[in-house]
Design brief:
Layout: E1 2-5, E2 11-14, E3 28-29, H1 31-38, H2 42-51, E4 57-58, E5 64-67, H3 68-78
Antiparallel strand pairs: 1-2, 3-5, 4-5
Helix pairs in contact: 1-2
Length: 83
């Protein structure tokens, strides 16, 4: 519970509100969170997104979100296997 003291006589208590997360495949990330998680630049994430290398979830006209597990799976499929 979060307690806010308004004045000497009035005390208000509010429940803590946790940030909602998507259950199942993990939290949604934007490109600014995904780039450091992959060790790549934001420009690289933009390039991969535009060329269809990595999957994304459109959340508006210019807003995209990524699931790290899905992105890692897509990148592992593109990996060149040495013989």
């Amino acid at each position: 519970m979060k307690t806010i003291i308004v004045n000497e006589k009035e005390v208000r208590r509010f429940p803590d509100r946790a940030k909602p997360q998507r259950t199942g495949n993990g939290a949604l990330m934007d490109k600014h969170e995904l780039a450091p998680a992959l060790g790549e630049s934001i420009k690289t994430i933009d390039t991969w997104t535009k060329s269809g290398v990595i999957p994304f979830i459109p959340c508006g006209a210019h807003t995209r979100r990524y699931l790290l597990n899905d992105v890692l799976r897509a990148l592992s499929r593109r990996q060149i296997k040495a013989n």
